[in-house]
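Thread: quick sanity check before group meeting

JM: Hey all, I'm pulling together slides for Thursday and realized we never actually wrote out the predicted structure for the chain we discussed last week. Dropping the sequence here so it's in one place. If anyone has concerns about the input, flag it before I start.
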Amino acid sequence: MADVNNARAALNPDQLAKLNSVELQEWLDSLAYVLGSAGNERVQEILEELKQYAYFHGVKIHHKQNTPYINTIPAHREPEFPGDAEMERRIMNINRWNSVAMVIRANKKSDGIGGHLSTYASAAELLEVGYNHFFRGHGAGVDRDLIFFQGHSSPGMYARSFLEGRFNEKQLDLFRRELQDEPGLSSYPHPWLMPEYWEFPTVSMGLGPLQAIYQARFMKYLENRSLKEKGKGKVWAFLGDGEMDEPQSIGAIRFAAYENLDNLVFVLNANLQRLDGPVRANSKVIQEFEALFRGAGWNVIKVIWDSNWDKLLQKDKTGALVRRFEQLVDGESQRYAAFGGKELRERFFNTPELQALIEGMTDADLDRLNRGGHDFKKVYTAYKAATEHKGSPSIIIARTIKGYGLGDSAQARNVAHQVKKLDKKSLLGLRDFLGLPLTDEQVENLEYYNPGPDSPEVKYALERRKALGGLIPRREVKAAPLNTPSFDFFNEFYAGSGGREVSTTMAFVQVLSKLIRDKEVGQLVIPIIPDEARTFGMDALVPRIGIYSPRGQMYTPVDAGTLMAYKESETGHMLEEGITEDGAMASFIAAGTSYANFGVPTIPFYVYYSMFGMQRIGDLVWAAGDLRCKGFMIGATAGRTTLNGEGLQHEDGNSLLQAYVVPNLKVYDPAFAFEIAVIIEDGLKRMYHDMEDIFYYITVENENYVQAPLPEYLPRETVFEHIIKGMYLFKKSGLEEAKLQAQILASGPAILAAQEAQEMLKGYGVDASIWSVTSYKELHQDALAVQRHNMLHPTQEPQKSFVQQQLESAPGVIVSVSDYVKLTADGLNGHLDRKVWTLGTDGFGRSESREALRDFFEVDAKHIVVQTLYALCTEGKVKPEVVEKAIKDFGINPDRANPVTR
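JM (edit): ok, ran it. Output follows.
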């Protein structure tokens, strides 16, 4: 080696340059021979070996995540386009026009109703190729695809459904008018509003990509567990380049590659614009995404330039054009899309080499140099390559023009996203651009265009959809109702813990464990945990049911041979998601909608750290409601004071309120094991037997105390009914003859302080009964419904809410106490004949003992007593001095700071 170096050093610069040139050519010739004789894979093997050799000998190789700014698949490797490109373009252009007409007509009738023109204008080719050649519908059976359509492009889907005969003109005219006499078309994909049409809500930015990843993973999970027959179905997600700035958009891409989700295809519509302007004006967003996804292990396919550029690339022998591509920034690209060929000639082809390439070309010729996402053949080539790829997920990054064809007021303009109307000139220009047989008067009147069911266009569109399994999008529920366990199934939980101290978390785990063993539904029960199984006492389930891993277990765990050995399996039951509440919630959504997507009614139990749940994943929970998701969300280690020691960030006093706002989410805060069992039995029946589109949020805590038995003062079925409705009489005081009465409403672990306060109040001559409130939301919603009914039926005898019925014969003041903020119970005020005095945990959490925390938040027994006495005082039933004496006797500082402000 030293001799070679010495020989090189003796050469003059010209000699060295000649040697380098000859040497390089020999390498290239050798590589060309291998490529021609052995193919791509052998070339890759040799290059990899050379790289390893170089590393071993200390050569530092700069690793580039980017390929040149050209199409990933060269022109000579493109397959023949299998369809009638001209026919498909006519179909697409009809859809383009009708989508524009629909939005503008809606805004003319109701100014400001909104809608988006530019997104579908940029994505039409991407969607049309899918509709005609790739997207498989329900008729494809196990091979059908799941498609997350880009939310802002919904007018394009409605327009195509109009062409196919699914919608009529009147329905199109009800775009964004959903409260008319006939059903309207929702603004975006919303299964709650259009349950037979839309499958996935995507317009909340970032949630589409995240959900698509976990949906693809869940598809493989079902297949590996033999709950679904293996098929060739793909999950497609259409995304905008602007939305990729959302953390949820890219937060799980490494996970997708780790899981080898080759059934997942992202189509990134890179029109280079977000709402206010360019996504990356001073660089190239496509290159950024290529590096990001390649680095994460994805198969990346770039579709940047259309076929009209191929001749120039072939003509360029010096690489000048590719070098000019590399110099482009997105802000510059937008100018060319907006101002056309003249601008391209003057600013892009700005060197003698580049000018020579376009010699003889007119400005009109240059106008035809387009972006790859608007070229059917380029898009088809990319889709085919992605669907045939094995071993990893694929992303197709297609360069398009936002507002393509919409004229000077919208095409590639910064305002494109907000454009809802077009002037007459732009509309006429669009008609001409699309080549539609509309008169100027029809254009001005924004008439829809449908060539009719017997036209070649409609016949072709329907034939292609028939060949691919039917019309899309379409939501179809095929799952049959389940025979869910009866109340008797949970008998062991009605007897209490027999003096043993058990937390409600452990009681829940026992309920879950019993369900998993059930022959009818056990295989459908799916525990989902974000890296907290040991915290929640669920680690005993791991060796029994296993954690799902597509790789199985490729190692011997450190605890092998123990009862609690860590077990991963291809057929594992549990989804252990790691530290990602968003990812775990996406899995919950995938499992909770499996009844609709696959006809498999899986029953997810998503168990998570309650404080890191609702406030982190609220947008996903809202999406779950829209999706008609089913299942149980379990807020573990819940409550502001039960999770002592963890402090401000961890202690949950808010989640019941945050869960309250989701209309179809049932919210419960049980105190005992039997309540948990009753709620879960009711939920199973309503969701999976009666097929109601609801889901559940249930809090459980980690404080150990004796689990009471089911009360016996009423028939068992009545107690069950009251638990579900939101409250039942748990324990009377025994001082029925006392002159002073109180009703204490307690929920969750606050039931302990209520029982202690009940005994203490006897010393003040107060007969206090305790009501276990399992759900303030159920009580409040019922009270609101009764109030509304009475308002709308003023001449009828007023109805009474359930909470009214329960408390009307229970005399005395009403005091509520919970481990949550006071607003949780305050909703009852105004719905009863008396005020509800609320105690709750408003304020930031602290690291302390439970006793100190309950004193700090003023929810312990002594504060319940003082609040009860003060409520009686306001009614003139006890003197103020009695209240003041109790404050002193309990050692309460009346001048201490409010916990809300501390």
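AS: nice. Residues 371 and 590 are 35 Å apart (CA to CA). The radius of gyration is 33 Å.
JM: adding both to the slides.
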